[in-house]
Amino acid sequence: MRPSYHPEGLYDEEKMSTKSKESTNPITQLWHMNGRCPEDTIPVRRTKKDDVLRASSVKRYGKKKHRAIPKPRSTDPDLTNESGHQHAIAYVEGDKYYGAKATINVWEPKVQQSNEFSLSQLWLLGGSFGEDLNSIEAGWQVSPDLYGDNNTRLFTYWTSDAYQATGCYNLLCSGFIQVSSAIAMGASISPVSAYRNSQYDINILIWKDPKEGHWWMQFGNDYVLGYWPSFLFSYLAESASMIEWGGEVVNSRPDGKHTATQMGSGRFPEEGFGKSSYFRNIQVVDSSNNLKSPKDLGTFTEQSNCYDVQTGSNEDWGHHFYYGGPGRNPNCQ
Q: Is pLDDT of 262 > 50?
């Protein structure tokens, strides 16, 4: 299958300034060094016995923990601290959204404990934050428990019941239908950005096909990866009611103190380009299948002295933000 329509109004890469172009070096996946898959096949990352054994249970393999999602404006300490998940995000709500796009700076953050992860992604959400939340997610992550190493990897996720029984990462359960033979879900991204050195980023676009109703994902400007069928969802069968962009980490607090798991580059937003990680050209897809700049962009973080977020807007980068942090530091215990 192919999507019947594509969103209009993409940023024209040709018109970007030199500063923007410097940060969009070509990016690929490590397995490409060994060739590509034949046409009409898709690459699937092999699941080995060791992968399953690292999971807390066979049933939970490839799944996120319950409530692994930021809830902006939440003042309920149980919601923000119970699962040890912490976020630094920008978000929009209050409208009907039919897709989201972002250019995401790629790093390889340090993860202190093997049962923690660090990711940067976009979320398309529908429903309430209780038992029936619908979510489609995509971005990059470092997750030793899931992959057995500390490499930065492309990933997707979905759930239709707030992470309880449905959904999973990548292709570890049925749901997301891949059509691309060129890009592998869960495969390592290379190269990654370095402090005060070359910066690399990836484009991710997710949009709802107005004709078929499925949610499609595009990686870069060339690769339509696949789709989430609309029948997987209740609320997202119609539209998303909230879009989020940003970082998430798990903090296991093994000794009652914050671990030093990094988000983004591990640097705070105020350090800026080449040091702090960013999302740029963030957009939403409206009901006419047009890409638009988000209105009334909000931000949210549980502990800004551990991980923070700062938004901005200019002609080259559109709506953008720097985000992340080092985790444990003198101001974050």
A: yes
